[in-house]
Design a protein that fits this description.
With about 100 residues, this protein is mostly helical. The chain has 4 helices and 2 strands, in the order ααβααβ. The chain folds into 2 domains: about 1-35, no CATH class; about 40-98, no CATH class.
C-alpha cells in the first residue's frame, strides 16, 4: 500500500466517522501540502559542512553543538499561511534534506 493510498483510506474513514472532525484550516493545509511538489534541499548539509571544515581540532561534542548553532543562525526560515507552528528541515513546504 502506498502512502497516498493509505492517506486516501484514512481521509475517507475520517469523513464517515462522526468522532473525527477536520477543521477547514487543517483541510486547507493538507490540500496545499499534497498539491506542492517535493524538493531536495542541500542548505542544511552545506551549512553544517561549512562550519565543520572550520572547526578542526575542537572536541566532537562542541563541534556538533556549534555546528547546530551556526546552522540555526544562517538557515532560511519559511513561514506559510495558516501555520501555527513554523519551521522545518528544509526551506521548502514539502522537501527533504541531503
Amino acid at each position: 500500500m502506498t502512502v497516498q493510498s493509505a492517506y486516501n483510506i484514512n481521509a475517507e474513514r475520517a469523513k464517515t466517522n462522526s468522532a473525527v472532525r477536520i477543521s477547514p484550516r487543517v483541510t486547507q493545509l493538507r490540500d496545499s501540502y499534497l498539491a506542492t511538489p517535493t524538493f531536495v534541499c542541500g542548505e542544511r548539509s552545506h551549512l553544517f559542512t561549512e562550519y565543520w571544515k572550520r572547526s578542526e581540532g575542537e572536541p566532537i561534542t562542541i563541534r556538533r553543538a556549534k555546528a547546530f548553532e551556526y546552522l540555526l543562525q544562517r538557515k532560511r526560515l519559511s513561514i506559510y499561511d495558516e501555520e501555527l507552528i513554523v519551521g522545518s528541515q528544509t526551506r521548502y513546504r514539502r522537501g527533504g534534506s541531503l
